Amino acid sequence: MMNVYPNVEHKECIGHLYSNFKKHFHGEFFSKKLWGAAKTYRLTEYDRLLKEIGDVSQDAITYLNKNHNKIWSRSKFGTTSKCDYITNNIYQNHLILGLVHCVINLCFPRCDREKIMKRFDKNRRVVKNWNGSLVPIAKNYLNNISKAICRSSNTQAEVKCNGRRWEVSLDEKKCSCRVWQVKGIPCVHIAAFIAFIRDDWEKYVDAYFTIEKYKKAYALEIAPMPDNDQWMEKTGRKYTIQSSDG
User: Has the keyword Zinc been applied to this entry (predicted)?
Assistant: First the structure.
């Protein structure tokens, strides 16, 4: 995979990582700390949790460094793809036209190709019923959040939340919690400031979450295929395909 996509961010699924990790280091302590380190957006919090693991077992840290040296914590995610998933589901953001060129060809096992065809068709039909400019997941997220504001300018402020203080900047599109930068949707601190100044929060949502981009993501039409016995012949030999059933 590193050779096929050398210029993209290579992440590791925390679910698979933990399945391997717990064979050697099990218990609630390790589970809580490792998953916490994966979920946090802040590098300082990641370092603190890894240090706590190391204080109990330095062998655990050695194991992680040796066997799981790809990116698996949100605190180390880049800010380009706007995808904060830490498990390896199919990420819609990675299908955005122009970000990843996805080629569906005969090398795909038959069942996988059909699943992708059905999903693309379903999502093309679903989006026809959506209104506005943002996809529902972005709308619902922003409608459910809203904190003590100490404004320093029209675009900068300190936001107090749950006993902690966060620095937000609308111009730079960043918050010190890093959620906005990684996820592409304003975090609770940014959303609170936007509500405070009575601005339109939709313009602060990354373009990946617009209905227009969603339509582009599923615009690719995967051509139907006839059964094997209907394939064309060339120089006396049939083209073959490697399918899941052999």
Answer: yes
